Amino acid sequence: MEKTTRRALLAAPALLLPGVGRAQAPSFAAGQTISLINPYAAGGASDVIGRVVVDGLASRLGATVVMEHRPGASTSLAARQVARARPDGLQLLMGTIVTYTMAPLALKNPGYNPQQDFAHVGMVTDSVYVLCANPKWNSLAEILAAAKARPGSINYASWGIGTTAHLPMVDLGIRAGAEMTHVPYNGSPPALIDTIAGRTDLMFALLAACKGHIESGRLRPLATCAPERSSLLPALPTVAELGFPGFRVGGWYGISAPKGTPPAIVAQLEAATSATMAAPEVRRVLDPVGMYQVPQGPAAMAARIAEELQLHAGLMRRAGVQAE
User: Fold this and answer.
1) What band does 29 get if pLDDT is binned at 50, 70 and 90?
2) Which of 4, 180, 221, 319 has the fewest CB atoms within 10 Å of its CB?
3) 106: Cβ–Cβ under 8 A, 6 or more apart, which residues?
4) Structure pTM?
5) Strand, coil or helix: what is 37?
6) Mean pLDDT of the chain
């Protein structure tokens, strides 16, 4: 059993986001402690987002808020913990697209149902993904033409089977009628290194991870993967604009409470979360690293989960990915 790491984040986030909501009167039960369960180890994007959420909830609800890291089993350990917690709003899951729409399909016994075991509060942010290639390629059309002419000759990198870098490429290949070869790596950095070196041809990558390589000319950006163009790369078209309508890749985060949490508590949490993510101080932290605003509220989150569970189930079948 992995040991849960507990980190109080009341003072530290204030250094990151000074003045977020501090003038508002407490509306949550003062003196209570809310635990935000983070399914990843300390460090990285999940910590940045977690600190934003922790600070915003603490300021707006008048409660003590801490973040607990509970990594493991493709984020399912954290999800399982919250799904089985007392439904009082004092344990919250900060899950991701993996938690809600991939791990339940990839694991034979994840220990939770993303549609039945939670009272969803809402999505908090999504991340800009870029389809990028070795600079020898000039466009997505050129790569797809080569893949159609020589099936299997184009190699694409990912950071693992069944991930947000793998399944979208399966989707793109199906839409384009192009057969490409998947080369999975243990993480994003080695996948980027081999794409830069030309050992693989292209990959989906988070903007935050590939932006420096794009600016240096070591990678060529082909398209962004959100519904709309990114303000950080305004001249770059979306994959949808290049002839694949509705195509979207996102690394989104959402907040959930256990099933049975009283609606009044969920409403308080949703209002505080929505206000936090819209605050100018928060946008100044997240926008520059490609984390953009998404539709708020339980209904939008439930709809996104349902849509992507169906999509990913079909893609995993097409890719031959078996639950483990």
Assistant:
1) low
2) 4
3) 74, 162, 316, 321, 323, 324
4) 0.82
5) strand
6) 89
